[in-house]
Write a sequence for this structure.
């Protein structure tokens, strides 16, 4: 979660993550503490510098003394918390969630410009998803190539809304939004106009850089060529808040 | 204003009615309207003429036995003004006969006995005025003791007193979860003073549920009164009623009630001549089931896409526009005025150890008496179905009752003797939900039932989180295969696994509970699934 | 797998075939180069497009399938492999997830055929019917029609990945292909 550069009166708490004793500021989320301490937690919708969305559910962790799972990206740490980030059950759930994503749209990596630089692809590998047990949904979605610099392929979109958030929160253009329900949700530009006709888009390209998959890419890239750079995000986010 | 002043007013309104010798009440709730009660009302008015002021035809709210509508009740002074005579399936042609009959010689062919268990076994708190007063009449409501709870709270109680009564009452939220209402109110009350909101959740989207609609259509002031008391207790000055646009009649009646309450000084500034200000706005929902979920509902009021967000923070801490917000269900608010009026102890004396008061249920499906009932918590399911509901029609046998809508589950015959409350239903793998009860007979296929509810969840999933959005799609397609006898043992195993993942990982209640109908039918009717499976081919 | 060639005295038998794929996975297999020689000491390829045998033996230890299930013929072969092989491996993305062949799933089969054999053909446009297997309406990964024991994604999986998987099997261990390959690799 983006936060003011200096906050008065934040307490420090101690907690245990996977048998590691750690301390953290009480306004940090579990995922932030894990990232700081190099404890890997899979995530997709979370991105340092953007507001919390809590939608992909890949970051769920177990809290001792609590039955329900907790999303690490949207839960703040607390004194004495005991967190398990990688139990057999969590691994199984995460694999299933990733499989569900692959089956939802057409993620055919071999012909994707993001092949080799895709977060979904590497998540699958890291979580041990080597095939998808559920049937593929086989629904076709359009591709919008109307923008002079960028392209949107709904078939590769995982609906993480990073594009929506970065455009709204960092670029301030709010070109993106989400329409529809369920698996037929779609990200749209300017009330579902073709992106190229958008009056709000400044062409800054931030959405393309934060998109985890090959859904948003630069025009003219070929298979495997689309490398993304998300470096700018936490820096911009912090500068914005410092002001 | 003091209670005595209000009592005086109520007496005055009652006196106005005193000249009426005979009052004819026609149900004007949506269900009876759809079976033609408007025409019946007109015919009765014609037959009554001006009646020299001694005869009065009025539209009232739901009388409960919706399957027998249009319902007409006749209250004759000579026979005592309680509506002892009820007529069912009334047509406009029956109007002259009804008006021509005299006390003691009713129109036998239309009679609907009110001493039958359907009526006799009920206990009405929420629906106490329903079917008796004219929902559009402020005077009727006050004459029936309305706003006494609010005036009492404002003039004789501190906010802390109100909180104490509500906590003592043991009332739990009627919107499904059963969260203790007193605790919720106290939490919002404890938040630092400043802008706070009260929201009434009238989005009622469960298939087969129409309890909240009936309350709004039959007795809208009761909800406003409950909200005003809540606002006083927690320190809010603004309220919203989020009601689905598919309930036009409820919206209309709410608007009328709001207007009249305001004109009477019971809403707005300096309510009942105290320093308390509270106003209410209506917001229409566009019919997405998920907008009944509290965080999605608030997003929708704010003009955003109706999608849930992670909790905490809970609305009590950070709700509408980031302000502390109290959100309760229609029926929850409808219980408040009686609790303040009669005291928390009185309410707590009704019901079971951990579930107090009454519950309104909408009986539907394969059952004789479909309609709306209100029974004390702890009533046996068997009594509700066999006695109040009149059992299963067409000589069929009972198979299961579904409670809790798409978040709930099915209860088979062998568990019918449990007393209904939040906890007992939970142990059976279902939940109270908002109060829909769908009865199924021997001809119902439980795989179909599960598939139906899964289809509902799939189409209503907001699409925010992955497990619910695509998990419901996958579970639905698996159920579809099994229902069509194309599924295999592996499909069933996958279905069960998806149930577990979706339940455990979904963001909001919709996804978390979407597998419940499958899990509960699997728990009690697994054989029906297995009968439909294909044998492995090799 | 428990077949330790040294203890049972005979080599592990392996059968391979390609279904709807580009044969790239088989080429990648050959890319193991000199390691093939070492492999030949441990395994016996009893049926494959790479060797001459035309009959799938009754009992095979390991079956390897490349390509997706796109036609009647693919379906038959997959079933046959499942029936005769103790351990069945999906090799490559087409086998594992449908990959490029499955891209036609978004269209009606008839439209796809029209596009391929009529719209884009100038000379004697006609849809072939003789001597070609019937195409299925939906392309599926192998495990969409028969049970598969091991999945080796990649387009094609690198020779090193195939080497790793086979070596592990020979050693009697269960390989974890995610360590060495992924979708699209
Ligand atoms: C998907 C979903 C739909 C819901 N729909 C409703 C509804 O229609 N009406 C309602 O009162 N509560 C509904 N709820 C429950 C509300 O989120 C909330 O808990 C309730 O309004 C609180 O009021 P109560 O404490 O009086 O029960 C729903 C919850 C979920 C998860
Ligand atoms: S290019 Fe920049 S302005 Fe345009 S949609 Fe993307 S983030 Fe928004
Ligand atoms: S286009 Fe990319 S960033 Fe936007 S929602 Fe889809 S996957 Fe996420
Ligand atoms: S559980 Fe379903 S309805 Fe709830 S947030 Fe997730 S997708 Fe939306
Ligand atoms: S990273 Fe936490 S829900 Fe997506």
């Amino acid at each position: 979660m983006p936060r003011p550069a200096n906050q008065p009166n934040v307490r420090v708490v101690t907690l245990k993550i996977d048998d590691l004793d750690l301390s953290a500021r009480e306004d940090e989320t579990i995922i932030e503490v894990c990232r700081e301490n190099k404890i890997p937690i899979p995530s997709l919708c979370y991105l340092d510098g953007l507001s919390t969305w809590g939608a992909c559910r890949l970051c769920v962790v177990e809290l001792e003394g609590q039955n329900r799972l907790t999303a690490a990206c949207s839960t703040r740490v607390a004194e004495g918390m005991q967190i398990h980030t990688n139990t057999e059950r969590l691994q199984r759930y995460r694999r299933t969630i990733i499989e569900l994503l692959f089956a939802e749209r057409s993620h055919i990596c071999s012909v994707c410009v993001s092949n080799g630089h895709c977060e979904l692809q590497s998540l699958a590998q890291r979580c041990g998803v080597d095939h998808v047990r559920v049937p593929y949904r086989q629904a076709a979605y359009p591709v919008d190539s109307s923008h002079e610099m960028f392209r949107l392929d709904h078939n590769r979109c995982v609906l993480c809304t990073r594009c929506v958030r970065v455009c709204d929160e960092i670029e301030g253009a709010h070109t993106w939004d989400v329409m529809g329900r369920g698996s037929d949700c779609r990200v749209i530009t300017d009330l579902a106009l073709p992106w190229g006709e958008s009056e709000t888009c400044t062409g800054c390209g931030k959405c393309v850089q934060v998109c985890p998959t090959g859904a948003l890419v630069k025009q003219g890239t070929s298979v495997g060529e689309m490398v993304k750079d998300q470096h700018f995000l936490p820096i911009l986010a912090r500068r914005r808040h410092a002001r | 204003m003091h209670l005595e002043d209000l009592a005086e007013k109520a007496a005055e309104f009652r006196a106005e009615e005193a000249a009426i010798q005979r009052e004819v009440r026609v149900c004007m709730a949506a269900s009876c309207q759809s079976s033609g009660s408007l025409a019946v009302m007109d015919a009765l008015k014609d037959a009554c003429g001006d009646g020299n002021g001694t005869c009065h035809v009025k539209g009232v709210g739901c009388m409960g036995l919706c399957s027998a509508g249009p319902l007409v009740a006749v209250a004759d002074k000579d026979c005592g003004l309680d509506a002892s005579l009820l007529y069912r399936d009334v047509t406009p042609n029956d109007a002259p006969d009804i008006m021509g009959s005299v006390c003691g010689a009713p129109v036998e062919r239309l009679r609907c006995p009110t001493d039958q268990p359907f009526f006799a076994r009920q206990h009405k708190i929420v629906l106490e005025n329903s079917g008796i007063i004219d929902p559009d009449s402020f005077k009727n409501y006050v004459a029936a003791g309305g706003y006494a709870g609010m005036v009492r709270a404002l003039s004789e109680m501190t906010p802390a007193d109100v909180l104490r009564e509500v906590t003592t009452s043991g009332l739990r939220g009627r919107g499904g979860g059963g969260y203790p209402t007193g605790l919720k109110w106290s939490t919002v009350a404890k938040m630092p003073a400043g802008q706070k909101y009260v929201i009434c959740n009238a989005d009622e989207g469960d298939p087969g549920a129409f309890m909240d609609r009936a309350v709004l259509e039959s007795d809208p002031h009761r909800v406003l009164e409950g909200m005003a008391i809540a606002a006083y207790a927690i320190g809010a000055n603004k309220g919203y009623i989020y009601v689905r646009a598919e309930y036009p009649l409820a919206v209309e009646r709410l608007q009328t009630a709001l207007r009249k309450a305001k004109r009477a000084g019971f809403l707005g500034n300096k309510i009942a001549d105290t320093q308390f200000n509270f106003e209410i706005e209506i917001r229409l929902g566009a019919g997405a089931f998920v907008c009944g979920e509290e965080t999605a509902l608030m997003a929708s009021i704010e003009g955003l896409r109706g999608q849930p967000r992670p909790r905490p923070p809970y609305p009590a801490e950070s709700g509408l526009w980031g302000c502390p917000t109290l959100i309760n269900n229609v029926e929850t608010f409808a219980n408040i005025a009686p609790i303040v009026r009669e005291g928390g102890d009185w309410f707590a004396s009704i019901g079971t150890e951990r579930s107090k008061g009454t519950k309104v249920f909408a009986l539907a499906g394969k059952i004789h008496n479909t309609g709306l009932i209100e029974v004390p918590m702890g009533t046996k399911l068997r009594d509700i179905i066999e006695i109040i509901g009149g059992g299963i029609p067409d000589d069929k046998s009972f198979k299961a009752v579904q409670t809790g809508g798409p978040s709930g589950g099915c209860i088979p015959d062998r568990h019918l003797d449990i007393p209904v409350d939040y906890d007992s239903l939970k142990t059976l793998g279902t939940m109270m939900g908002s109060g829909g009860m769908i009865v199924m007979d021997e001809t119902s296929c439980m795989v179909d039932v599960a598939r139906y509810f899964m289809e509902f969840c799939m189409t209503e999933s907001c699409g925010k989180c992955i497990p619910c959005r695509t998990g419901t799609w996958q579970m639905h397609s698996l159920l579809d295969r099994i229902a069509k006898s194309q599924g295999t043992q592996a499909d069933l195993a996958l279905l069960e696994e998806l149930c577990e993942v979706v339940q455990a990982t979904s963001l909001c209640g919709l996804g978390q509970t979407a597998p419940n109908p499958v899990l509960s039918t699997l728990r009690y009717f697994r054989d029906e699934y297995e009968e439909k499976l294909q044998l492995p081919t090799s | 797998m428990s077949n330790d060639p040294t203890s049972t005295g005979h080599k592990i038998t392996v059968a391979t075939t390609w279904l709807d794929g580009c044969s790239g996975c088989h080429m990648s297999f050959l890319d193991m180069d000199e390691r093939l020689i070492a492999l030949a000491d441990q395994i016996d390829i009893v049926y494959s497009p790479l060797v001459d045998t035309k009959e799938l033996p009754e009992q095979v230890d390991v079956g390897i399938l490349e390509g997706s299930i796109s036609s009647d013929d693919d379906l038959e072969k997959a079933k046959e492999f499942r029936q005769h092989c103790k351990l069945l491996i999906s090799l490559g993305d087409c086998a594992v997830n449908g990959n490029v062949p499955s891209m036609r799933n978004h269209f009606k089969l008839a439209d796809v055929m029209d596009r391929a054999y009529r719209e884009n053909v100038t000379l004697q446009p006609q849809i072939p019917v003789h001597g070609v297997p019937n195409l299925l309406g939906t392309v599926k990964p192998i495990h969409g029609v028969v049970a598969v024991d091991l999945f080796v994604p990649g387009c094609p999986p690198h020779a090193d990945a195939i080497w790793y998987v086979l070596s592990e099997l020979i050693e009697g261990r269960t390989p974890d292909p995610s360590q060495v390959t992924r979708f699209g690799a």
